[in-house]
Amino acid sequence: MNVLLTGASGFIGSHLRDALLRAGHAVIGVGRRRPPAMPVDQWRELDLGSATPQEWRRALTGIDAVVNAAGIFKEGRGASFDAVHVRGPCRLFDACVAARIARVVQVSALGADEAAGTAYHRSKRSADAHLLALPLDAVVVMPSLVFGTDGASARLFLALAALPVLPLPAGGHQPVQPIHVDDAVQAIVALLQASADERRGRRIALVGPRPLSFGEYLQQLRQALQLPPARAVSIPEPVMRWAARAGDVLPGSLFDTAAWQMLQRGNAAPATDITRLLGHAPREVAGFVRPGEAQAWRDAARLAWVLPLLRMSLAFVWLLTAAVSFGLYPVADSYALLQRTGVPPAWQPTMLYGAAALDLVLGLLTLWPPTARRWLWLAQAALILFYTAVISWRLPEFWLHPYGPLSKNLPMLAVLAALLALDPRKARAWST
């Protein structure tokens, strides 16, 4: 079977492509940019949101079945829910009617129903309804939380599960029913290969074997990581609302107001359909991580919260130093220290406030959302070494100061070395 797959380079789409190939099917991916691993003859360069009906009909030449696995969790520049979830898929589905390709699978989301309360779910529901109203052999699959060690949300939940104390939003009682990505894609492959009656006009929930509370989910992820149960602390709902609003404006944040609303609503459904498709119950959360890989993923999960903690502490030092230099410490005493290091009086204000401004910039850049920071860590290490050398030469008594103002530079350099070595943009242990 020749399968056209949108979203073939995404999380679910890439796993589905591999599963279809293993099952002996040919896969044609669709997207704006071909991934390097995709052969040219297995890719159609189309923008899902702007492709015309004529372009879709050309792309469907020789195709036997279509799976739409394209999706975004947050809107961004050039990617809206209307374009990616509604306009593009609906044009594709209409083109399937014109091309007489009846077998269509739409990857929607659990919660995209009449009670949908977020723009994400409403947009998915619109495309679902459009597809099921067409004269097609079509089915809508509705995944719950999908876990895969290469998935962004799974990395977040593993990091939360690896914390010494589990933070539970508003008590962590929200129902979830996570499914492993391998079970989800195997169910989709089974649907493509099943009889038309198994598909036509149906909505099928792709869920784990049973509902769990969010707190139970994190504890079971700890079990998968071979960690003992942890104490939990409830994060009050007002704090969660504030964090969600902050996530609305932070680039790349997985937690925002919509995510908080979806978590509060819950994410669970009967597992009857997927159990029938798989021929067995989907795997339990405790089996999400293979035993032989538990240590590697446990280490990676811990680094996922340790590295931000190191960054926050480093940023705090730079920002506090800037505040002290801008006037919290008596300016006259700061000038006196500069005088002893050999700075002429005329240059002292420039040196003091220039250094304070530099510290402020370094602190803010350390807090900036993750980018390639290698140059930033090297710049901070160079500045610390410069300060240490000058003070050691002109004010050597600070090495013997009881508060250790110079000796504290050594652990700061160690933190920078750790960040430099473990820069997630250099060593992609959690690559998507």
Write the layout of secondary structure elements.
Blueprint: E1 2-6, H1 11-22, E2 26-31, E3 43-45, H2 53-59, E4 65-68, H3 81-98, E5 103-107, H4 119-132, E6 137-143, E7 146-147, H5 152-161, E8 165-169, E9 175-176, E10 179-180, H6 181-193, H7 196-199, E11 202-206, E12 212-213, H8 214-224, E13 231-235, H9 237-249, H10 257-265, H11 272-278, H12 294-328, H13 331-340, H14 348-367, H15 374-394, H16 409-421
Parallel strand pairs: 1-2, 1-4, 2-3, 4-5, 5-6, 6-11, 7-10, 8-13
Antiparallel strand pairs: 9-12
What does this structure look like?
With 432 residues, this protein is of the alpha/beta class. The chain folds into two domains: 2-289, NAD(P)-binding Rossmann-like Domain (Rossmann fold, 3-Layer(aba) Sandwich); 304-421, no CATH class. 50% of the residues lie in helices and 12% in strands. The protein is built from 16 helices and 13 strands. It has helices at residues 11-22, 53-59, 81-98, 119-132, 152-161, 181-193, 196-199, 214-224, 237-249, 257-265, 272-278, 294-328, 331-340, 348-367, 374-394, 409-421, and strands spanning 2-6, 26-31, 43-45, 65-68, 103-107, 137-143, 146-147, 165-169, 175-176, 179-180, 202-206, 212-213, 231-235. The strands form four sheets. Strands 3-2-1-4-5-6-11 form a seven-stranded parallel sheet, sandwiched between helices. A two-stranded parallel ribbon has the order 7-10. Strand 1 (2-6), helix 1 and strand 2 form a beta-alpha-beta unit. Helix 1 packs across helix 6 (181-193), helix 3 packs parallel to helix 4 and helix 5 (152-161) crosses helix 12. The longest helix is centred in the C-terminal third of the chain and has 35 residues, at 294-328. The two termini are 28 Å apart. The relative contact order is 0.08.
